[in-house]
C-alpha cells in the first residue's frame, strides 16, 4: 500500500489531533522510563500558541496527522547559555515538541519529520538545525545520532539539563 506523506503548517483544525498525539507521546516517554514531558508540559495551550505563532508543523499520511513538531526560527533563549559550544553562530531553526502518534510509532515517522524539517530549512536559506532532548529519551537520542546531529553540550529548561545537538545542512 502506498501512502502519501506531506509536511505542512499546522492549522487550528489540527489542534485536537496534535494534542492527542502529544498525550500519546507523553505516556510513551513515561513507559520508557523517561522523565521528559512528565511535568504538565506540553499542554493544549502550548499547541494553540504554536499554531497561533505559525511555528507548529504536522506530518500527514493520507491526510491524517501522524506527527507534530514546533519549528522556531532563530529563537531559543535557553540556547544562549549552553554549557558547551554550538557548531555555528549562523541562523538556525530550533526543533521542539516532536511527537508521533501511537499508530505511526516505530515506522520511521520521527526520522521523516526531521528530514522534512531539514528540507524546509534549506529551502528557506537556513542551514543549521538545533535541537535538545532529555538525557533519558533514548528514542530521540538514537534518531539524532542516525541523522548526523552533533552533541554540543547541555542547555537548561524548567530547571533540568537537556542534551543539545546541532546539524549543519549542506
From TrEMBL:
Coiled-coil boundaries: none
PROSITE patterns found in the cross-reference section: GNAT
Database matches in InterPro entries: Acyl_CoA_acyltransferase, GNAT_dom, MshD_Acetyltransferase
Domain N-acetyltransferase, first and last residues per copy: 5-170
Gene3D superfamilies to which the protein is assigned, alphabetical: 3.40.630.30
Name this polypeptide is given: GNAT family N-acetyltransferase
Species in which this protein is naturally found: Kaistella yananensis
Amino acid at each position: 500500500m502506498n501512502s502519501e506523506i506531506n509536511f505542512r503548517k499546522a492549522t487550528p483544525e489540527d489542534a485536537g489531533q496534535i494534542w492527542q498525539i502529544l498525550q500519546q507521546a507523553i505516556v510513551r516517554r513515561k513507559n520508557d522510563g523517561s522523565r521528559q514531558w512528565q511535568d504538565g508540559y506540553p499542554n493544549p495551550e502550548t499547541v494553540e500558541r504554536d499554531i497561533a505563532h505559525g511555528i507548529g508543523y504536522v506530518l500527514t499520511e493520507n491526510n491524517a496527522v501522524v506527527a507534530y513538531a514546533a519549528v522556531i526560527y532563530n529563537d531559543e533563549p535557553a540556547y544562549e547559555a549552553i554549557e558547551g559550544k554550538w557548531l555555528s553562530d549562523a541562523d538556525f531553526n530550533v526543533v521542539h515538541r516532536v511527537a508521533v502518534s501511537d499508530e505511526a510509532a516505530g515506522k520511521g515517522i520521527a526520522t521523516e519529520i526531521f528530514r522534512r524539517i531539514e528540507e524546509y530549512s534549506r529551502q528557506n536559506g537556513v542551514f543549521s538545525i538545533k535541537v535538545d532532548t532529555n538525557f533519558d529519551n533514548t528514542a530521540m537520542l538514537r534518531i539524532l545520532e542516525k541523522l548526523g546531529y552533533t552533541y554540543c553540550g547541555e542547555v537548561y529548561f524548567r530547571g533540568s539539563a537537556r542534551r543539545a545537538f546541532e546539524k549543519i545542512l549542506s
